[in-house]
Amino acid sequence: xKALFLTSSINTNKEDGFGNKIPIEFENxxxxxxxxxxxxxxxxxxxxxxxNPNDYEKTDLYSSIVFExxxxxxxxxNYKVLDNRNVKDAKKLVxxxxxIYLAGGHVPTQNKFFNDINLKELIKENKxxxxxxxxxxxMNCADIVYSPPEEEGEAxxxxxxxxLKGLDLIxxxxxxxxxxxxxxxxxDLDVKKDILxxxxxxxxxxxxxxxxxxxKANNKVMLYGLSYLFKDGRRYKFSDDKKKKNITKYDL
Length: 252
What we know:
The chain is an alpha/beta fold. Helices cover 25% and strands 27% of the residues.
């Protein structure tokens, strides 16, 4: 792996007046476009790895938007999707990829798919690939993935697992789409007060909004944009938007 991007979201689309998602040229928010250009050396093969390997309709919808957005911004020659329709070709597709996009979705579902195809080992064979995680895709890049409940019933379930075996591409856990001023509830619980803060006593993590990302490359880990650190049951503002911070020595 040449470089790893852990994004909350890349703004690849906008909604028209009817609620349809229209692909757009994505912005250089916190210099992400500059950094893509810096580390992507070849633009031959783009591989989109699905979050749910069986939800073909949703995968086709979102992958087509991502492909068109990159075609407008950083065009590649070939675009491929990896899910259960072509899982037998996983090794070949990952090995040939110049850029791998790990899609967003339900963290445990994607985590199982990654482990089922042994993606951790497949990625090791491609030393020059640039990997970009989005939301769940970013979360599953950690060695130990912090997977907070997100669907109804998960927050109160005794069987739901919040810590999963990840791709081990980085030793940092993140919580994406975070808005410090927004109150989010799940199963009648305040997500920040009743889930994230208590869980941070067991494992620390960074929480950040769309537009912020972490870049691991050249033996350095840099955080670009606004972020918060959840640690020991407390929340701290860690970095500001339009700024970058070296977090190489952090182990979360």
